[in-house]
Design a protein that fits this description.
Elements (H helix, E strand, L loop, with lengths): L2 H13 L8 E2 L1 H8 L3 H14 L2 E4 L3 E4 L4 H25 L2 H18 L5 H16 L4 H16 L13 H14 L3 H31 L2
Antiparallel strand pairs: 1-3, 2-3
Helix pairs in contact: 1-3, 2-3, 4-7, 4-9, 5-6, 5-8, 6-7, 8-9
């Protein structure tokens, strides 16, 4: 396994949450698990550190990055800017077939909203929003947004996150799709902006609660 394959394997384990936020990453452990020498592991960790998936702490080593409130705010600001920019472009040209695909994704999302929050639900929600952006035809915007979602999902601890809204998230999607079908761009933008801001607020609220809990134990 070369350094590129080693990098991809470690990143995949981070994205799939097999390597959880806060986990210490040692050259020896990763080399043994992947069946490689320490050199490609060291090179991979440096690359992942530059990309923001891993952080290096002096005299302590490498750790899978955990979220803080500043990063969450910045990522959601970027997400909002990209999605709100793409949406009017999509509404102008979206087809019946494309809307049907979005409805299918939201049907799956609706099923997951009736269950406890899971990583699968986060991924289906990501797919719904990314699919809309994909219809803009701007692959670079899509790639940047995909990277933002990767960071938001991989660093998010699902355990302990209680979402009591039930089917409300999928209903937000329903409202958005209805506005898109009616070619009501202004309404669609308002719905999407409220949806994204609400998601950001809930994530920040969870992080603050989690931090307060940690400081009291």
């Amino acid at each position: 396994m070369n350094s590129i394959s080693t990098y991809e394997s470690i990143k995949r384990d981070i994205l799939s949450n097999r390597l959880r936020p806060g986990t210490k990453l040692t050259n020896q452990m990763l080399a043994e698990n992947l069946g490689v020498s320490r050199t490609p592991v060291r090179e991979s960790l440096e690359r992942l550190c530059q990309e923001g998936y891993v952080k290096r702490v002096i005299n302590r080593g490498y750790f899978v990055v955990e979220m803080d409130t500043d990063e969450v705010k910045a990522l959601y600001q970027m997400r909002e800017a990209l999605e709100l920019f793409a949406l009017p472009i999509v509404i102008e040209q979206i087809s019946v077939e494309q809307l049907s695909i979005l409805h299918e994704l939201n049907n799956r999302y609706r099923q997951l909203c009736s269950e406890p929050l899971s990583r699968e639900r986060l991924l289906v929600d990501r797919d719904f929003h990314l699919q809309i952006t994909a219809y803009s035809g701007n692959q670079y915007m899509y790639q940047v947004l995909a990277g933002i979602f990767d960071r938001l999902i991989l660093k998010r601890r699902v355990e302990g996150f209680h979402d009591g809204r039930g089917l409300v998230p999928s209903q937000d999607h329903d409202l958005l799709l209805s506005a898109m079908e009616a070619r009501n761009t202004q309404l669609a933008l308002q719905i999407l902006q409220t949806h994204i801001n609400g998601a950001c607020f809930r994530f920040l609220d969870y992080l603050r609660t989690d931090l307060t809990s940690a400081n009291t134990h």
